[in-house]
Design a protein that fits this description.
alpha/beta, 7-stranded parallel beta sheet, two-stranded parallel ribbon
């Protein structure tokens, strides 16, 4: 099977490329800049904005998995927000155009999206059918609506693409827990081992997550299920409050305590890490309704056992 991965040089791209190569798939990563060589992966240049010679890789492929987009793990400055928007919308549009004009289009287009599209809430989980999309919640910073607007626009570019011979799936992905550098797990583990893995702003906000193994298995499942299209939540079935998530991580790592952080302390920490507090403070209570209804079985449904499994694996390095 030939899999084309636009934007595949980042954290998730490395995880997915490695697994695909291990099982014998042909993997082509579209990249805007030079990237470290990866065994079995072929890198092809594109700019993420316009058609070019790279479109020949899409023509005749089996799967396109579009991961392109500037990382949200940054300060939400105007320049960064603009780049987050442009890199997602432009890449989705140009990938759709390449599929539309392909003589032999891929049978499925998996488009990365985000669980952040759902509302900040504590009272009930969000699935694809009954979940509440965000953007108008009271008592949250007004700029949080930007992330929701971006997610909606990102998915809309895929929806409107004229690709009648290609099934389209929007992957509303929670935080992926993986030993791969640059990801959420590596950052949270580092803070935990420094004694900083305590509740943030009370810790009642929910954190949705998915183990890297289940992410890969879910993508395989979606590739093979011709009856599934549209938005699909990629999240473990047991989201939990941030304080409980960190308590389980501390237990797995053998760290006896974690200093709590107030909201203003979180602001200082996010500034120092060049990140934004939305990643810590927004309550993302997301569940995989469509996957479960379709019969997908999670290998790591609960966080305490998943954390222990991840800690048995060596932290990887890039390059």
């Amino acid at each position: 099977m030939k899999v084309v991965i636009p934007g595949g040089t980042g954290h998730l791209g490395r995880v997915l490329s490695r697994r695909l190569v291990e099982r014998g798939d042909e993997v082509v990563v579209l990249t805007r800049r030079d990237a470290p060589a990866e065994p079995g992966v072929r890198h092809v240049r594109w700019d993420g904005r316009a058609a070019g010679p790279w479109t020949a890789e899409v023509d005749g492929s089996d799967v396109v998995l579009n991961l392109a987009g500037r990382s949200v793990n940054c300060r939400y400055t105007r320049a960064n927000l603009r780049e987050m928007w442009n890199s997602r919308i432009d890449s989705a549009r140009v990938v759709g155009g390449a599929i539309e004009h392909a003589a032999r289009p891929p049978r499925v287009w998996l488009q990365m999206s985000t669980a952040t599209i759902y509302a900040h809430r504590y009272d009930a989980p969000n699935d694809e059918t009954t979940g509440v999309l965000g953007g108008g919640e009271p008592d949250v910073p007004a700029y949080w609506a930007y992330s929701v607007d971006l997610a909606r626009a990102w998915e809309r570019e895929q929806e409107v693409a004229a690709t009648p011979r290609t099934r389209k799936v929007a992957l509303r992905t929670a935080m992926v827990m993986s030993p791969e550098p640059g990801g959420a797990f590596a950052m949270l583990l580092r803070l935990t081992r420094l004694g900083l893995g305590g509740p943030v702003a009370g810790g009642a906000q929910y954190l949705s997550w998915i183990h890297e193994d289940d992410l890969i298995r879910a993508i395989d499942f979606l590739v093979g299920r011709d009856d599934l299209s549209g938005p699909v939540n990629l999240a473990a079935p047991e989201p939990l409050p941030y304080k409980d998530f960190l308590r389980a991580l501390r237990a797995a790592a053998g760290v006896p305590f974690g200093l709590p952080a107030t909201r203003w302390m979180a602001e200082l920490g996010a500034f120092a890490l060049r990140s934004d507090t939305e990643l810590l403070l927004k309550s993302r209570r997301v569940v995989p309704g469509r996957l479960l209804d379709a019969g997908f079985v999670f290998g790591h449904p609960e966080w305490p056992a998943a954390a222990e499994d991840l800690l048995k694996r060596p932290l990887r390095t890039v390059g």
